Amino acid sequence: MARVAAGSAEAYRELSSMYLGAVVNYCNRLLRNQADAEEITQEAFVRLWKAAPNWQPKATAKTWLFTVAHNLCVDRLRSMGRNDELQDEAASESVRPSRRLDQLKLATAVRGALEQLPERQRQAMLLSHYEGMTNAEVGQVLGVGVEAVESLLSRARRTLRTLLPSPEPN
Questions:
Q1: Average pLDDT estimate for 62-84
Q2: Is the pLDDT reported for residue 87 higher than 50?
Q3: Model confidence over 139-152: pLDDT tens digits?
Q4: Cβ-based neighbour number of residue 144 at 10 Å
Q5: In the chain, where are the structural domains located?
Q6: What is the DSSP code string of 100-142?
Q7: Cβ distance 75 to 16 under 8 Å?
Q8: b/e sequence 72-106, b meaning 16+ C-beta within 10 Å
Q9: CA 40 to CA 24: how far, in whole Å?
């Protein structure tokens, strides 16, 4: 960020290449619209560029970007009256068609179960499990403490266990 703040386009490109795909994916999961996700991601990166000269290292560039993108997504959902929408991606690798079908069924079940979670639990699960963030990073994005994140994730997992079918033994 110090290099970006100094006007380094190369440093900005490096940050973009590291986080662009993950931010777009997160936004797409929240918004269920690829075009909106790309637009919001672009806005988040523009804000990063503009905010770089005043950067205070209270958070990493990654958590700062996700926080900005998260807030932009929430604002977009509120303006559209779609606070509870979310999209998950199906697993794409398979060995045989029956396995692919099983994977798609499971992905559909997970997506449906995630959609039934309260918004904050759903957001915590997406950031933690799909974006690979630590609980501290999730807390920064959501504006809550680590204990609150742990509670959100615990409640989400408990609910998901009741909503999802038990795995069948092979």
A1: 81
A2: no
A3: 998 999 999 999 99
A4: 15
A5: 2-80, 97-163
A6: HHHHHHHHHHHHHHHHHS-HHHHHHHIIIIIS---HHHHHHHH
A7: no
A8: bbeebbeeeeeeebbbbeeeeeeeeeeeeeeeeee
A9: 8
Domain covering 2-80 in this structure, CATH number: 1.10.1740.10
For domain 97-163, the question of CATH label 1.10.10.10 is answered with yes
Which one, of 100, 106, 118, 85, lies nearest residue 167 by Cα? 106
Signed CA dihedral, 138, 144, 145, 148: sign only:
negative
Tokens of 28: 């797409």
In whole angstroms, give the CA distance from residue 167 to residue 78: 36
Cα separation of the two ends of the chain: 49
Task: Find out whether 70 and 141 touch, Cβ atoms under 8 Å.
Answer: yes
* DSSP character string of 25-64: HHHHHHHS-HHHHHHHHHHHHHHHHHHGGG--TTS-HHHH
Tell me the whole-structure pTM to 2 decimals. 0.58
- State pLDDT tens for residues 31-55: 888 999 999 999 999 998 888 888 7
